[in-house]
Amino acid sequence: MEDAEGIINNVWLKEYAQYGFARWAVVEKASGKVIGFCGFKFETRINAIDIGYRFHPDYWGKGYATEANQACIDYARAHLDIDQVFGEVLLDNHASAHVLKKLGMQFIRQYQDEGYTIDSYAMNIKAP
């Protein structure tokens, strides 16, 4: 609980103040239980806006990542001044790569970072 409060207070709320967006908690409708997070973050490592998520393993493979991140994209289109968003996954994380593709993201490159192979995807948020 202390770690979660620290992330919310020291990272997410600061990002809201600086960028106008940050990650959101994801709550399962049926139970009202927080099952993870998703949303946007300005990622200094790539100098761009990243969409990301993490869920408790009990909730993997149930469509929550796609549903939650699609809601984030829809919200950004309507309310945020974001033109492009990136998503990055480790090479062997096929499930997350599948989520990014379902969201409409396109593979743009593969690169090495700190010993990991990362696949990078991107999409334009604003309609052309």
Overview of the molecule:
It is a single chain. With 128 residues, this protein is of the alpha+beta class. The protein has helices at residues 2-19, 64-79, 94-102, and strands spanning 23-27, 34-43, 48-55, 84-90, 106-113, 116-124. The protein has a 3-stranded antiparallel β-sheet. The radius of gyration is 15 Å and the shape is globular. The model has no long low-confidence stretch (mean pLDDT 92).
Compile the SSE list and pairings.
Layout: H1 2-19, E1 23-27, E2 34-43, E3 48-55, H2 64-79, E4 84-90, H3 94-102, E5 106-113, E6 116-124
Antiparallel strand pairs: 1-2, 2-3, 4-6, 5-6
Short structural description:
This protein has 128 residues and is α+β, with helices and mostly antiparallel strands.
Sum up the structure in keywords.
single chain, alpha+beta, three-stranded antiparallel sheet, 34% helix
Say what the CATH topology is: Aminopeptidase
> How far apart lie the N and C ends?
43 Å
- Strand fraction band? 35-45%
Mean pLDDT: 92
Level of helix content? 25-40%
Radius of gyration: 15 Å
Strand order of the biggest β-sheet:
1-2-3
What overall form do the CA principal axes indicate?
Answer: globular
Supply the CATH superfamily name: Gcn5-related N-acetyltransferase (GNAT)
